[in-house]
Amino acid sequence: MDSVISLIQAAVVFGTVIMFGCIGEIMSEKAGNLNLGVPGIMYIGAIASLASVFMYESHVAEPNKAVCVIIALVSCFAASALAGLIYSFLTITLRANQNVTGLTLTIFGSGIANFFGGSLNKMAGGVGQISVANTSEAFRARIPGLSSLGAFGKIFFSYGFMVYVAIILAILVNYFLKRTRKGLNLRAVGENPATADAAGVNVTKYKYFATVIGAGISGLGGVYYVMDYIKGTWANDGTIEKLGWLAVALVIFATWKSVNAIWGAYLFGILYWAYFYIPNLTRASQELFKMIPYVVTIIVLLFVSLRKKKENQAPAHLGLSYFREER
Amino acid sequence: METNYAVEMKNVTKTFGSTVANNNVSLTIKKGEILSLLGENGSGKTTIMNMLAGIYFPDSGQIYINGKEESIRSPKDAYDLGIGMIHQHFKLVDIFSATENVILGQEGKERLNKKAVAARIREICDKYGFDVDPDKKVYNMSVSEKQTLEIVKVIYRGADILILDEPTAVLTPQETEKLFTVIRNMRAAGKAIVIITHKLHEVLSISDRVTILRKGEYVGTVDTKDANEMILTEMMVGKKVELNIDRKEPENTVKRLEVKNLSCYNKEGRLALDNISFTANAGEILGIAGISGCGEKELLESIAGLQKTARGSVIFNDPESGQEIELIGKNPKAIKNLGIALSFVPEDRLGMGLVGSMGMIENMMLRDYNKEGVIFLNKSKPKQVAEAIKEELGVVTPSINTPVSRLSGGNVQKVLVGREISSAPAVLMTAYAVRGLDINTSYSIYNLLNKQKENGVAVLYVGEDLDVLLALCDRILVLCGGKMSGIVDARTTTKEEVGLMMTSIRKGDTKDE
After folding, report:
1. What is the ipTM of this complex?
2. What is the pTM for the complete model shown?
């Protein structure tokens, strides 16, 4: 029983990282922009928040936890959105190839983050490991009382606030896309920009809006990763990139619906950590188990394609740039 | 300024790169009238209207709406001025319902109220006599339903100036008549309506005035009551054109292709062809009539070996060996080598048969590059073919090496049809060979087909224009929803009879609609 609970806990924490990445990517893809820069954006968001909080914590005698959280979130969102802006400018205004631009952004993001991460570790001195304990504590703070409700409390309330933010965000984005005027316009831009344009929707504006905000949301996965998942430290081990790709896979798994990303993310978490709870696995067979989320994504893709239900397919104009006067 | 003009365009010019699409064009549209905009392909009809609809922005010139000079920078500006355009290629989002398509891009309360919009759609439908189901997804709609939805969409937005780009291209005669009734209703309601077309009889039957463009320039405007087909064609083409199809009696006809009880399923698993049997003779043009999607595509592809069949057989009488050869089960290449050519002009002309980024020469080579040379390509013969097609069909292109995607739609089609004819086939199957082509080129293609027929080729011609089918073909096979409605003699049948057979199986069979 205990191991089941701890598997679920690990899965929720893991899932939250990729859920943020996925929700942001859904926003962007619904507007027709296939942003493969998600891992890079998560890296940039993570390092921006870590660096700003580190500056704050090391210059103030008694750091205020609320201020720490705000600084972390704002700097992360701003840096990620800026990365999204670069991507938008290249792919929307200059109409560069989306896949190439996205991959480049991932390489750029991981490079810059690991460079500054290493420098921060050095600046932190001591054992050569940066730690922003105050902020991390604030991110990991639980609701008092609720987490001691036995198994129930452990499964549902033993997490930091970002876990719940992710769920709320998934529901809000779903509501926005399905029930609001702007959401409808945004989906039309991803499906058929010429139609949206002829209907008076400003295609460029919507694409920028969706990609930049989407990148900001994706970046939050990065801040959650450093502040909660690895408890306010930094490691140049490439984990964020791995998680970033899973976030992109999760978009397909969720068939471009952010509410599906909620359970999908946790399922990915369970599948990812399952090896840890299966006894007598060798190192090699562990790696096979870590493959499962990707295999599941392929299977889902297979079923979705076979069923041919149009609503479950990728936006029709995904990955293509739009130019009104094209002949 | 007289205010009974809904639209006045003065000296409008638009260029794309080095191509001048519109040069110094001026025209007027009155309130409560139907204006036809007539011209050949590439004459700039659609371009000039796109400037009114805000898709393109003119390089120079003025546009007056209701007597006031306006600058229309985007489709939204156009809507605000009450201008709505129904494009040739429908501007609808496939996975949206009719309601969602109608509210797309509209201002209003942030939260969507689909019920209220659906109610308003029903109201418009009642007023003008449309038939639209607000909850139906666009991908489930027929072409005619999509078009109706487009019209409802612009009316919902309060358009007073409606532009319809080739609205009848994909409709049956009955659907066209219904559309015209609706358009007349709208004229009676005081709206200004522009119809872009190159079908002369439609121009004469629906419009009040006709404005003619030629090669991007304004030629003139005539009142429809003073016009006839000859005058209009002359203005359009700039010279007298012989509008007769020289149909000879079929000579020495021999059985070439015998289709027996052919059935097949399409990709969605629906029965696309149901028990089709007919014979195609050498030295004869067999027309195939039907609404788009009635199985004409599957029929031609089955014969060409591109479509898996469920039942039936296709027997080919080889003129060289005199043997009877079963085509079902053979691969497309083997069938092609027997001399069976298929040119299918799909809605998206580049989608099937041509590679957009290649020039004419390379596209000629696609058909039989493997006949000569094992490693290196031999370009001299395809080059001759390309030159010949350019010359004969008058393909307008800077060079035969220019990527075909840069050519206008009609020119792309000439390349496609020309290539198939140049392969000197025994059976020539062509679908929508003149779709979107101007009158002049259409007639040169008809004549080419007739020449093929005289040379003893069995020609299968799938066409949209019933007038042409009646004038060109010897016999017409009519399809309806994958079933055969019958074969009629093109010389004795009437348009109405064929139109009726296209929409319903004879002997009281009803169609599920």
Report:
1. 0.85
2. 0.75
